[in-house]
Amino acid sequence: MGYAYDYQLLIRHILEYGVNYAPKQEIVYRDLHRYTYKDLYNRVHRLANALEELGVKKGTRIGVLEWDSHRYLECYFAIPCMGAVLHTVNVRLSPEDILYTIQHAEDEVILVYKDFVPLMESLRSKLPKVKHYIVMTDDKMPETNLTDLEYEEMIKKASKDYEFPEFSENTMATLSYTTGTTGRPKGVWFTHRKLVLHTLSGCIAMTGIRSPLRLKDDKEVYMPLTPMFHVHAWGIPYMMWLMGIKHVYPGRYEPMMIVKLVLSEGVTYTHCVPTILQMIVDNLPEGFKFNGWKMLIGGAKLPEGLAKRAREKGIYTMAAYGMSETCPALTGAFVKPHLLDLPMEDMLKMSVKTGIPFPLVYVRVVHDDFKDVEKNEKDMGEIVVRAPWLTDGYLNDEEKTKELWAGGWLHTGDIAVMDSEGYVTIVDRLKDVIKSGGEWISSLTLENLLSLHPKVKEAAVVGVPDEKWGERPLAVVVPMNENLSEEELRNHLLKFVEQGVITKWAVPDKFIFVRELPRTSVGKIDKKNIRKMVAESFKK
Questions:
Q1: Domains of the chain, first to last
Q2: Taking burial as the number of CB atoms within 10 A of a residue's CB, which of 14, 212, 301, 433 is the most buried?
Q3: Which of 181, 374, 431, 440 is labelled catalytic?
Q4: Nearest to residue 164, comparing CAs of 90, 73, 82, 220?
Q5: Does the active-site annotation cover 425?
Q6: Residue in 331, 263, 277, 285 with CA at minimum distance from that of residue 308
Q7: CA angle (298, 201, 61) in 5-degree steps
Q8: DSSP-derived 3-state class of residue 349
Q9: Do the bridges between strand 424-429 and strand 456-466 make them parallel or antiparallel, or are there none, so unpaired?
Q10: Active site residue 435
């Protein structure tokens, strides 16, 4: 007894396998930098040495404020592999919330891209626990009294000989904060074990399970369009590294740079929220078409109308689902083997469903008494989940953690239905479902149906107070052009009433036309602000 090696699931093993398998594979940053897996591997060791010289040790929390870059990928490996904690700071939060998250995380070192140096200068006096700031830049060091430490210079001076330590797989590896629209952001953390298992499951799902986005050969090229500060860019950089696939990082998201990189680097695989997909589709020249760009869509409901428009532009989409608290992979619109021969129209409808679980994930849709809903696509309940990579809880918040894990299942707060095949479709957030005259009305279903109107660019539906019925749905619509009326939209929805898709009661009483919808820091439609906007419009 006790002779065998006690193998711990550490991120270091992902790093080692990827470089051993594909040492000459490329990593590209905008049109500024290009190097290999082997080069990154060496720089990761240099970064670890440099951080150790600054006093970083196991458990030290390190905040990173950066756009999507090769440097961020280096941090994804170096910091947790040392036993330190990578805090991916959401740079799109308000300055007050950024300050709060850094304070709450108790960061001791901050790596900050030059764009955010003025912000950190303004917050510095309120961050006494931060011992070191390191500036990241694409060119020269900006003038600042924040620090004289510059990322590239620091790495150049450091040794590439570093031996990553052994420690428990249950060691905290990463920390990020939720982007909820109520209250302060909550700290969500993941261990090495959770991240390794999440990576392995994702690799199986992307290569071994049938879907419109299945990875097929060594010519695949990956570019994230989900910020790397948001739940590890959905964990996909780790998966792509393990599989030896070329990485392309766009830096700050700019439509023309994104299209340029897709074309010049041959990008085939991306993930993003619907807003980014909408931005890309809207900015493409008339008649332009990609040669089969695969795009995983999550973070919000993928409207069927947007999926159709994307397909016409050569972009193949598939919905996926997860949360900050779930690392995030839970489900994808994968195709079961016996459904592969469905007509293309049915396949498209399936591709926008929330989907079926990733390997090792258990998903239930339950009523308040924890009984499962009927699989009839009408009976609604809350999604609750189990998987080996879900967060253990919120950092330093026992009360919210108990709520999250009530009954031994993680509560998502998402309302959904399930079909006879086990495919889940989210119909609303628990806080967004419209309760009208004793009936639940799905805002997401209405938004999806509105997206199918050829004159609708996008839409959001919220409940507004009603003295008689409690709430009634109201639609806020961004038209393709100004020639769109409430009557056209009402008649469009009444067609779905005739088909039995929705009830007549679900058709909104009022439609408001706007130029754009408000967004959260990660690009989701901000319904809290929409309700506020609507309430103010009724006062006038």
A1: 11-190 (3.40.50.12780), 434-539 (3.30.300.30)
A2: 301
A3: 440
A4: 82
A5: no
A6: 277
A7: 75
A8: helix
A9: unpaired
A10: yes
Euclidean distance between CA atoms 26 and 223, whole angstroms: 12
The catalytic residue among 101, 178, 391, 445 is 178
By C-alpha distance, which of 279, 321, 259 is closest to 296?
321
Q: Going by DSSP bridges, is the β-strand pair 410-418/424-429 parallel, antiparallel, or unpaired?
A: antiparallel
Q: What is the pLDDT along the chain (540 residues), one digit of tens a residue?
A: 579 999 999 999 999 999 999 999 999 999 999 999 999 999 999 999 999 999 999 999 999 999 999 999 999 999 999 999 999 999 988 899 999 999 999 999 999 999 999 999 999 999 999 999 999 999 999 999 999 999 999 999 999 999 999 999 999 999 999 875 557 899 999 999 999 999 999 999 999 999 989 998 778 999 999 999 999 999 999 999 999 999 999 999 988 899 899 999 999 999 998 888 988 888 888 889 998 999 999 988 898 999 999 999 999 999 999 999 999 999 999 999 999 999 988 998 999 999 999 999 999 999 999 999 999 998 999 999 999 999 999 999 999 999 999 999 999 999 999 999 999 999 887 777 787 866 778 888 899 899 999 999 999 999 888 877 888 999 999 999 778 999 999 999 999 988 888 888 889 989 999 999 988 776 778 888 888 887 776 665
Instruction: Tell me how far apart the alpha carbons of residues 285 and 185 are, in angstroms, rounded to a whole number.
Output: 39
- Give the span between the Cα atoms of 514 and 276, in whole angstroms: 19
Structure tokens at 158: 């450091």
**Residue for token digits 């090769």?**
70
Which DSSP helix (H) or strand (E) runs through 511? strand 510-513
One-letter amino acid for residue 331 of the chain? T
CB neighbourhood size of 365 (10 A): 25
* 440 among known catalytic residues: yes
Q: Give, for 240, the enclosing helix (H) or strand (E).
A: helix 236-242
Measured at the CA of 114, the angle between CA 110 and CA 119, to 5 degrees, comes to 65
- What distance in Å separates the CA atoms of residue 305 and residue 310, rounded to the nearest whole number? 9
Q: Look at residues 337, 298, 288 and name the one whose alpha carbon lies nearest to residue 318.
A: 298
Alpha-carbon span 43 to 36, nearest angstrom: 11
Query: What spatial distance separates the first Cα and last Cα of the chain, rounded to whole Å?
Result: 78
Catalytic residue among 24, 126, 157, 435: 435
Peptide bond into 328 cis (omega under 30): yes
Q: Sheet of 456-466: strands edge to edge? A: 456-466, 470-479, 510-513
Residue closest to 136 by CA, chosen among 63, 240, 57, 54: 63
Of residues 325, 382, 447, 458, which has the active-site annotation? 325
Compute the distance between CA of residue 485 and CA of residue 221 in angstroms, rounded to an integer: 43
